[in-house]
Design a protein that fits this description.
By secondary structure, the protein is of the alpha/beta class. It contains 59 helices and 56 strands. The strands form 13 sheets. Strands 36, 37, 40, 41, 42, 43, 44, 45, 46, 47, 48 and 49 form a twelve-stranded mixed sheet that branches. Strands 34-52-51-53-54-56-55-50 form an eight-stranded mixed sheet. Strands 16-15-17-18-32-19 form a six-stranded parallel sheet, sandwiched between helices. Helix 58 links the parallel strand 53 and strand 54.
Amino acid sequence: MQKGGKLEFHFPEQNRRRNMSRSNRKRKESRKMGNSYAGQLKTTRFEEVLHNSIEASLRSNNLVPRPVFSQLYLEAEQQLSSLEAGSRVDNEEEEEEEDEEEGSESSSPPIAYQMKPPPEGCCTTDGFCQAGKDLRLVSISNEQLEVPSGFLLVGVKSPNLPDHLLVCAVDKRFLPDDQGRNALLGFSGNCVGCSKKGFCYFTEFSNHINLKLTTQPKKQKHLKYYLVRNAQGTLTKGSAICWKGAEFRSRQSSSSARSNTLFQPPENTGSAVAVTSEPVLAAAHPGVQAGTHQMASDHLPSTVCYPVYNGKESPQQHSVKNNISSVTRPSVLGTLTNSGPPKKRHKGWSPESPSSNEAWHLQPNPQITNRNKNEGGGGGGLSCLPHGTMVGPVSSSVVTSGEPVSVPDNLLKIYKAKPVLFKGHGNFPYLCGNLNDVIVSPLLYTCYKNSQSLSRAYEQYGASTIQPISDEMQLLLTVYYLVQLASDQVPLIEDLEQIFMRSWRESHLSEIRQYQQAIPQAFPQVPGPIAPVTTAQLPWLAGLAASSCNDSVHIIECSYSLAEGLSEMFKMLIEGNLVKTNYVVIICACRNRAIDSCIAVTGKYQARILSESMLTPTEYQKEVSYELVTGKVDALGAFFSTLCPDGDVDVLLDKFCQENRGRISSSLPASVNKPSTLDVTGTAGCASYNFERHRIRPFQLAVAQKLLSHVCSIADSSTQNLDLGSFEKVDFLICVPPSEVTYQQTLFHLWHSGVLLELGLEKEHLTKQRVEQYVVKLDTEAQTKFKTFLQNSMQNPHTLFVLIHDHAHWDLVSSAVHSLYPQSDPAAGLVDRLLNCREVKEAPNIVTLHVTSFPYALQTQHTRISPYNEIHWPSLYNNGADLYHENKKYYGLSEFVESTLSGHSLPLLRYDSSFEAMVMALGKRFPRLHSAVIRTFVLVQHYSAAMMAVCGLSQMKNYTTVETLEITQNLINSSRQCRSGHGLMVVLRIPCIPLAAVAYERLNHVREKLALEDHFEIILGNPNSGITIGKHFVEQLKIWQKIEDAEWSPQTYLELEGLPCILIFSGMDPQGESLPRSLRYCDLRLINSSCLVRTALEQELGLAAYFVSSETSPEKVVSNDVLESDPEKLSSTDNEDEETVTEGSTSEKRSPVQRERSGSHDSAASSLSSKTSSTAFCSETSPPSVTAGDTGKSTHQMLSSSTEESVNNSEKQRPKTDKDSKSNAKTTQTSITSSSASPFSSSSASSAPTHSSFVLQAPQCSMTKVSQQPPIVYLPKLVYDIVTSADSTGLPKSSSLLPYHSVMWASSFRPLMSKMMTCTEQSLYYRQWTVPKPIHMDYNNRNEGRMDTFHPRRLLLSGPPQVCNRNRIGKTGAYLQFLSILSRMLIRLTEVDVYDEEEINTGLKEESGQYYHQPGDAWPDFETMKKMPFDYTIHDPKYEDASLICSRVLIKNEDRSANRKQEDLYMRRQTTRMRLSKYAAYNTYHHCEQCHQYMGFNPRYQLYESTLHAFAFSYSMLGEEIQLHFIIPKSKEHHFVFSHPGRQLESMRLPLVTDKSQDYIKSPTFTPTTGRHEHGLFNLYHAMDGASHLHVLVVKEYEMAIYKKYWPNHIMLVLPSIFNSAGVGAAHFLIKELSYHNLELERNRQEELGIKPQDIWPFIVISDDSCVMWNAVEIDCSGERKSEYTWTERNVSLKQILQHIESTPNVTHYALIGMRKWSSKTKSGEIKEPFSCCHIHDFVMLNVDLTQNVQYNQNRFMCDDVDFNLRAHSAGLLICQFNRFSVMKKQIALGGQRSFHIKSKVSDNPVSIAPAQYICAPDSKHTFLAAPAQLLLEKYLQYHSHRFFPLSLKNYCHPVLSVDCYLNLGPQIAICYVSSRPHSLNVSCSEMVFSGLLLYLCDSFVVASFLKKFHFLKGATLCVICQDRNSLRQTVVRLELEDEWQFRLRDEFQTANAKEDKPLFFLTGRHI
């Protein structure tokens, strides 16, 4: 604050002392008022409490810090809500303390009244009786208490528990009546806690219930309230007990005239509006949390109501409603009920009050100090205050002071409205007298206080220097806001909050920027506002602002108190001086204190809207029913009857019926009159009834895939919340609201989707009874079906159950409400009880999917749905591009609003000004009737008159509106335009079911009298019942839909397509009913316009949401209609619908300049209706003219005076129309003239409507046109203004409303929404800024003791409403498609694609005909194996593109590529889909209970803790020591040996050869892997059948962290960093060398234990990371002949195979043992020999002892296993393949060799480089490649080796001789492998002539004499490969190559590496 240019600050401590001193100075005056002022600060605790307060605020994450200043008082008195912060002392406590404490000057607590000491050992706790039973209302409000006959439950006030009431039962004879009389003296009561009865003295009773009184016990003082059960059955505080003489007691105080019991203090208000530690309610008040819904006494006199005393409701009721009941009301200014008077003034500490925010000012500010004196610094605001409308009694207590103000008698009768009084700043005077005729609301007070509280979001800017907006500025801004409101607008609290927010931001923009740019200093001197509004200036500025509004806002300035202004206002109301005034602003601005203010809403329309908005939907329906039942509406009906100039309308109807029935019948069209003549074949009928065949739309498929992706994300997360791999099928249950139509509609969609058959849940011949098992209607019978669903989920753990909650925003009531109030609606809270039950939450196989178009209520701070689990409907278009190639254009809310912009010929969204004017006029005439009753009766009257006018009673046109006449004409005439009688649907939305029934009966009656029963149907759409239509129309529908079932009747609105009808759509909310394409008009003029919450508005407007075919140009539709009709057609009212615009493209292309709103969209006739409304009820006479100018003239003299005012006001607010509107007005005149005669008479062209000529020319079905156009929507004017208005940023006002009635804003100091917000951003906004109210089912979600309150298996699908839906274009089709693809995915998850390829090169096997083993032999014979020849040929299909290995001279020169097409090289390898067995290996996505411990994810086990160990050994070939690192989890350390002192890793334990245990696998398994941390099959738990085994993952150093993350319980061997770019050869090399080194260590270690070295197990297993399953062949040799056998193959565990192989006799004599690769094409001949001596791949059991001197080539990337097999065989080692066993390899598209990408080292551009560029000339400027030299070499030779060996191409008889290595030279070149080692086994080469020689990195064993043994063709080529150029030359010299080979300088090459990457060098030559 700044005053006089000087910044002034003050401290809370100084405030406290100053307040204390003031309190002491005023104690004498206070004593006169009966105030003991006992509550003093505990100065000894101040610093401690202040410190705790600061610390708690710093630690708190809540938006609302905990209020702790209440701890500074001695006596724990009631906390003030922000509604009462800053109020005066409670008069009741003054009275209690008046007698006993008048002379006490001490600040110590009063001495307790000396009563009889309690019996020894009894309970003395406050709130409990002496028997120890709890009596507090909040504790026992839900218990069933025994109340004897004649007794009442009463609330007792205890001075020691000011926040609580104690419950007791009192004989009602001892209690007063409503006048405070007739109470017997004495007392008779019972204790409800211990059930002790018979207390005859109140003193005795007060002792028993531990009141501990400080005064003489008197029942008048302490029996305060009646206790009543509310609608939900909770015991709540009712009306105050009116003791005798409790009217007014004169006080000798300046404020004087305080009331005794008429102004009861509010109970629990501290918790009521969330100023306690809990954001909404204190946890100690469950009764308050439950909420209450009661009617006002003047609304339902027949029910038990809360009495209203002196402008106040019972405070307990108020406190409850502050938290609960308000959830159902809109945020309309003035709709909150009032709060009671607070306690002592100094106790108004609010968590975000200005005082607490201004805690560190340096000097006291007089202005703020004065405010603190008057208001206790109180009530800066509540960030969790509900902004909705309050419910129940229309008045309640507010902060009051000063003289009482008497409300005049007969105020309602005289003024015709109840003024709404908004308490503003400061103190509010008492009201007395006729309190039922006024409404007092604290909503504005709350808004002011909240707007003075800086949100935590702005604390960073420095709350001490940036002050909230001042009171004066708040009031001035409020006046500005009210001035700019139109006469038909109602103020919204959201608007005012945004105004305050913007004002605060603008005024402190410089400070905010300063704090954003720099760290604030301790006390920066920031300048305040330049010109703050002073108290003296305020009245003058307010009056100046109001001077321009034609007295719409009237300012009253008071000099002493608000009581003067209120009295003056009431006087002006009675005298009729405020007829044109809508708002009266009363200001009391005294120089010596802060301002007091009050705003009265005196506008009849505004006051009615505000008062009616206080009713809950239940109360609203009860009120309407009451008015209907009691006959209050009879006066309205009588009034309507007098309007007709010819007498009663019914008399006119009867007369018309008798005179014209025959003529009308004869004029009916044949198609309607004689349905039996309709052409069943349809050849001559209408062709517009062909429905689109059901198909999935592209965007539906996109949504289904997004849903599936989110489900997979849940399964893939590390939380283990969903194990998709464990499910085999999908089941589901769809929950829908209790609407019979919605239920049948969902059954219809489900039936025709085919999902049940696709999921395998049902067989063919599906019955409706079976389909019904999968859809549940959420009514009282739902629990049985849901219980079955839960039982099925528990009995089928391998089935994934999807619980779909459709229309999920419906019924979000907490189940606690139902449990507390079981007598209320039995379906209330059903969703919470079912979907949030413990079984659903804990079931691991249930996924819950919420589906809604309005997800806002599920997006709060306490939501159960993670923001990552939200799926939003995709946009069909992005930057003009069609993303999904969709031929449907969606028309939703934004498109409807778009149509109201200028440039559209006729808007889709309209309002009816004539209707609104009549409703407003009748509202003034009948102020005691609910406006919904008036609106309904008026609209029904208009429809009745329109039907009569269309039937020939032309004079009735004066008693309807142009809009209603248009709707009726088009409806009745629509069926005449179609040969088959197709027509339009009109939806008449009447939310109130009793009113809908009245409308249905009345319209049916009129239709019957007019003989229109066969023209159109009237359907009453009740959500609780099905559809009932006439038999005649059923037959029509059956013919149109070609239905032969005699019992068929329509059960959904979709089946009414083409039926001309009025659908009266009732129910407080739509419940998901879809409407047919024939919907033309959506009449929403009767929706509850006071229920201004976003969900309610969008839900109503969603009824008209529509998909229109974008293939038909809207312009063509209009032009064609024009050509087909006569010139008058476009001006005909009944043909208006043909001009409807569906301009999606044109509106998008229109320039921004043109996007201004049209002047008037209130009717089809544009500006005419405003003229009509101005004359509709005002004219003196009504001549029978039918021109437009005369349309509105009638004999409504009774309304003339009251109507002119409202119509003139509305006329002033309506902008002028443009030329088009004027021309439209002219055309409408013509239209009314042309349609004046009977439409059924076609004899006269002049009198017949234009449709008669139209039909004769070229009849076009109305439904055809309608299906190509979105419906036309009529709204109430109030709703229309809100929907079509936008703020300065373009954000529609409807978007900024409270999102849902059972949520509230977390803070009024919130940022504004943005127009550009995506659905995701809106969700995050609501998640941050909204909190659920106590009746919301998510309210208690925060109290479950978990940090993360999101349910892991819960998803939310939100999409635009799409009600006009015949072909499941919307969300239903999307989630049914999701079920389908989810089922397919689950089946896919239980299957795997494995390679299924036939062995290659089988024709090259030597057919010896000799079998070495019998087919049934289990193990190979060692001696026999030594005799078996080695098969050099590669048979593994993965090497189909590898060079053939020749072991002999091939007889014929086969072209191996001849059998393959060229494109086969680029095709995928053949795979087949196999179902995973229970012995499969899995990747990281598999999560089952059995292997949780194995995987290390189970939180109960700390297995994932691991340690890093270094392990070093030397290897001479590398020339350096190799250091490897092991990552060993704690659970796997038993496999290793550690040194005792330092726990250094010494070795890996190895078993003995002689071990025979079946519990473990002896061979350690090593799996080298790269790039497959997610997809590698490392989970061998099931494959090993749970057996203990040692499994080591071999990973590269840079991948160590990611593998460790996904496989925390696996041992990992980390390769040195130098191998980061190496291939699989390096991994194999290090595995083998490490294993041999470990074998030596183990031999040494165990030799000390007496074990022989040869007894240590020498085998390891090297397995690929894609081995998924293993199979065994079972041989049956039981045939008669020995050679006969049969075999079967089955899946077995890897444990069984390994243990079988490990038990092979003489197993240590084998060097390599393997198995064949599985193939479905395996022939019996291939397994007839059970064992083979050949190449083995993929899964190798390696004897590291025997292969000590044979090494893997650490440089190799490909074919290293073939290379190793050849060298092992040439070394004389035995290789054995078990043909009985096979391994299946899974196709994995990621990782492995695919992880090596060859790219340029210079450019980052990922351009593919051809293999021909992998080598270059030495010293050339070739672009170097970023790849290892060895990889470039192997890739080049694979694709381009023919450049080096041209003679070898397809020359298989003359292979290339390769010495000591195998390199793949491509499939068209053959290789002969020889070893240079002495004593090696080589093929016989004496007869072979080679076409080339390959020398790769020759070692010293290769000598010149060795090479001279071989013979080469003339011209054969040589390729020598060395590591550098020097070695190349040395090799040529050492091997004497120049003797036989010719070399050229240009024949030298190198791999395309940089020098630092050590390229390989080539030298080629030709044989001489």
